[in-house]
Amino acid sequence: MKILVCISHVPDTTSKINFVNGDSEFDTNGVQFVINPNDEFGLTRAVWIQEQQGATVTVVNVGGPDTEPTLRKALAIGANEAIRVNAAPTDGFYVAKQLAEVAKNGQYDLIICGKESLDYNGGMVPGMVASLLDYNFVNACIDIKVDEGSATVIREIDGGKETISASLPLVIGGQKGLVEEKDLRIPNMRGIMTARTKALTVLEPVEANVKTKAVKFEKPAPKSAVKLISADNLDELINLLHNEAKVI
Fold it and tell me: Rounded to whole angstroms, how far apart are CA atoms 196 and 168?
């Protein structure tokens, strides 16, 4: 079985975020980048399937040379090979078009994406990839078992969970639950050394129209100062909640 894991290269949540060029572009200076968390859950699950069923795992990313350390980390975690599509991930459709082309040429049985990336939270790429390939698609996946050409998938729905049986090839949008955070793998020295010898292929992008463009970014308004009310002054607390905060 061949598994393709789609990897996004996103800022660490502890990074300080700034914008440049009239707040139209993200400032990458001094920002630490990591594997998108939803993608890392999917990668770890793919490596489990690799170990249990002898699958081959390929990771793919759309991005410039600066994303290669992220792909090398994925190789150190256990992926067999990596592919980088040499293009800026300008919008969801453009990224999906590149990923679908890689998937089509590689004839993968299972394509694992994160349900959304941590930077833009668009949540559109997995479904677009499935549509472009005409593959089955299940989103918000928290468990998957694969057996001889079919998969049993559990996904989150409002108020509960849903179990779905689907034939391969299949695209899933994964999230926490595919594995738990405690099960994520930290590359050891052997994995890091092995990753240096694994194949990292660079492909040029296929032609695709860019459907959207970021015009301006805005940071959330800073939080206002905290007002402390004495425990003996409940009337003042009620007055502020009613007239100022307007929550009662």
Answer: 32
**Cβ-contact 172, 164 below 8 angstroms:** no
Q: What is the pLDDT of residue 58?
A: 98
Q: Is the per-residue pLDDT at 222 higher than 90?
A: no
What average pLDDT does this structure show over 170-184? 95
Supply the angle between the helices 125-133 and 92-106 in degrees, to the nearest 10. Answer: 40
Per DSSP bridges, beta strands 200-203 and 170-174 are: unpaired
User: What's the half-sphere exposure (Cβ side, CA atoms, 13 Å) at 247?
Assistant: 5
Residue 244 has pLDDT above 90, yes or no: no
In the chain, what is the straight-line distance between the N-terminal and C-terminal CA atoms, in Å?
Answer: 58
Of 52, 49, 194, nearest to 108 (Cα)? 49
Q: How far apart are CA 167 and CA 233, in angstroms?
A: 64
Torsion of CA 100, 120, 74, 107, to 10 degrees: -10
Q: Which three-class secondary structure state does DSSP give residue 43?
A: helix
In sequence order, what DSSP letters do the residues of 164-216 get, joined into one string? EEEESSEEEEE-TTSS-GGGPPPP-HHHHHHHTTS-EEEEPPPP---------
